[in-house]
Structure to design on (350 residues):
């Protein structure tokens, strides 16, 4: 947890200049109705507490996955994006997303999650905007994902198109 | 082109033991009707002549892409699979595919191409079988791709399912 140690051991006024992988978004800018005093911050730092991440995924009802494999997936993702609620000197992981990529043409976004307590406040949109901004800054032209039926409309509002020109997302299952 | 130098400078009987990323499939096993004497071989070697790859992609009418970016994409793909026709001591690149991955859960296959002269001989299927075997050997459980409309049925015969459980492949376009 080197990142947070750095963040909380320095004064607020200097921390942002010392941590390059950190970006703050005020509750208002993120479109959230959180009580004033809370801040919503985003990071691409990969030094994530895997148990805290598991807790977040549990909260939305995902099947548990071996932490050894989650660790490997995070290491080998092109982008790892986290969203945090910061209140005083406490921080809480409230959102996560990651992307695989060839670092040149394509990126595919996986494992987008926002804690239920923070849903319907525009924070999913804020997280996705952060992810897209990061991918575009790396000159990735083709950003893709596989959306569960109940979030297809959400991604549509973000500018994603389902089956463009008849292109079909397909999953392989052994015969 | 270190791989092929090694391959062709050693006798046939020892070459396969010296090159680990090389796998041979007889024309018959690959389901091809190529004249006898030809062999179809597969490799995961990344030391590909980018001009030869561009020629292959030109042959199927793909838009040209900057070779600098193609090189980067190959370097950062999880798997790069090539298919070659070998006749005597000549070899010709006749197929290509690659996959991005988080090295743990997901892989996405991109840029599957078979030279028009070698299509409708079961070689696309042989190439995909080779790719799937390699991905499965790395314990990747979720293999995905985005299929153009005219190849959706081809991938169906390989065990791919479009929109399973209503999951939609989506592409992002800037507003």
């Amino acid at each position: 947890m080197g990142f947070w140690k750095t963040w909380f051991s320095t004064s607020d006024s200097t921390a942002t200049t010392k941590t390059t992988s950190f970006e703050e978004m005020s509750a208002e800018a993120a479109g959230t109705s959180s009580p004033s005093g809370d801040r919503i911050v985003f990071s691409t730092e990969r030094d994530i507490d895997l148990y805290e991440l598991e807790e977040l995924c549990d909260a939305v009802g995902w099947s548990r996955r071996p932490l050894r494999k989650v660790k490997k997936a995070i290491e080998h993702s092109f982008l790892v994006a986290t969203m945090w609620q910061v209140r005083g000197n406490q921080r809480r992981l409230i959102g996560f997303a990651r992307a695989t990529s060839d670092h040149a043409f394509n990126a595919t976004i996986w494992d987008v999650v926002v804690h239920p307590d923070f849903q319907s406040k525009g924070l999913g949109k804020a997280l996705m905007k952060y992810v897209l901004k990061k991918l575009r800054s790396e000159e990735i032209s083709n950003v893709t994902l596989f959306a569960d039926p109940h979030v297809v409309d959400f991604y549509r509002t973000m500018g994603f198109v389902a089956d463009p020109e008849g292109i079909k997302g397909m999953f392989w299952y052994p015969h």
